[in-house]
């Protein structure tokens, strides 16, 4: 069922008509014409029953004996058929701060994840008639979407080195995919997701310590690898410069000793104490 607009009249004129009928009914009652007075009072009351106030970013879904007749979105004091049943719905943007969920990522690691969803009602007819409670529907489907997304990707690329996208991805791809997944799930309820973001992501407490040690070890290995790569480059440059400037001629054994000493100096975690050779190079 799709939304359709219901045209309504300004309510201010009908307020005047209602009061006029009441005043006229009171005059008839004083003239002892009770039946006509009662009819006028009844008609005046009907004028007021048909009044409704529509606030900004608000809509009123109207039905007539179970049949959907349209949605009023004009702001202000409006008047429609008094027999219409009206249900007001907010069209404002809303925040859903999801609870922390304990799920397994792609690699089977237990993690904690939560998301914040900004949404609003776009189709009032679908929101009212297609689902039982559209707000509860948004909450449940948001949780399901987060669980599905968490199971499709690993926490980071330490466990899955071939992964292009991880849950910790900082480029926003995970948030974009979450938003797309939510829009597909919530279109039935006439709800549009404006923004969806992961608000909490962490390993579960039972494995958090072990994973932290693993991340620290990986960081140390990566740092040492970069140091070794730099040291090898510096040694290579030093040998090339010595050969180019013809400062000293070294045989293969002396080159190996020099490379060993330079690598110790450059790759060592602590500062080294140099030993100065005051004699000949070959003694």
Automatic annotation (TrEMBL):
The record lists the membrane-crossing segments as: 12-29, 35-54
Q: Name one GO biological process term.
A: proteolysis
Q: Which InterPro entries does the protein's record reference? A: Band_7, Band_7/SPFH_dom_sf
Indicate yes or no for the key word Membrane.
yes
Report the Gene3D superfamilies cross-referenced here. Band 7 domain
Where does this chain mainly localize? membrane
Residue ranges of domain Band in the record: 49-215
**GO CC terms, sorted:** membrane
User: Which SMART domains has this protein been placed in?
Assistant: PHB
Q: Name one Pfam family in it.
A: Band_7
Q: Which key words are in the record?
A: Hydrolase, Membrane, Protease, Transmembrane, Transmembrane helix
User: Membrane topology per the record?
Assistant: Single-pass membrane protein
Keyword flag Ribonucleoprotein: no
The protein's location, in the record's own words, is: Membrane
**Gene Ontology MF, one:** peptidase activity
Q: What is this protein called?
A: Regulator of protease activity HflC (Stomatin/prohibitin superfamily)
What is the originating organism of this protein? Answer: Runella defluvii
């Amino acid at each position: 069922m799709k939304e359709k607009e219901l045209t309504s009249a300004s309510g201010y004129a009908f307020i005047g008509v209602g009061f006029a009928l009441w005043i006229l009914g009171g005059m008839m009652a004083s003239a002892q014409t009770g039946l006509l007075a009662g009819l006028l009072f009844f008609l005046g009351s009907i004028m007021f029953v048909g009044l409704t106030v529509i606030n900004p970013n608000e809509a009123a879904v109207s039905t007539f004996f179970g049949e959907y007749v349209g949605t009023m979105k004009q702001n202000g004091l409006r008047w429609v058929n008094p027999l219409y049943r009206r249900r007001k719905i907010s069209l404002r943007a809303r925040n859903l701060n999801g609870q922390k969920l304990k799920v397994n990522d792609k690699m089977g690691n237990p993690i904690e994840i939560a998301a914040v969803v900004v949404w609003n009602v776009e189709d009032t007819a679908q929101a009212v008639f297609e689902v039982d409670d559209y707000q509860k529907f948004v909450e449940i489907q948001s949780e399901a979407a987060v669980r599905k997304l968490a199971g499709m990707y690993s926490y980071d690329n330490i466990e899955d080195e071939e992964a292009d996208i991880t849950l910790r991805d900082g480029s926003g791809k995970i948030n974009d995919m979450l938003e797309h997944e939510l829009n597909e799930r919530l279109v039935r309820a006439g709800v549009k997701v404006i923004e969806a973001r992961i608000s909490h992501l962490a390993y579960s407490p039972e494995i958090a310590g072990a994973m932290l040690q693993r991340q620290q070890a990986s960081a140390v290995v990566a740092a040492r690898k970069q140091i070794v790569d730099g040291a090898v480059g510096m040694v290579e440059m030093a040998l090339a410069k010595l050969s180019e400037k013809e400062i000293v001629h070294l045989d293969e054994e002396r080159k190996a000793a020099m490379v060993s000493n330079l690598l110790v100096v450059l790759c060592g975690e602590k500062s080294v104490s140099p030993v100065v050779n005051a004699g000949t190079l070959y003694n």
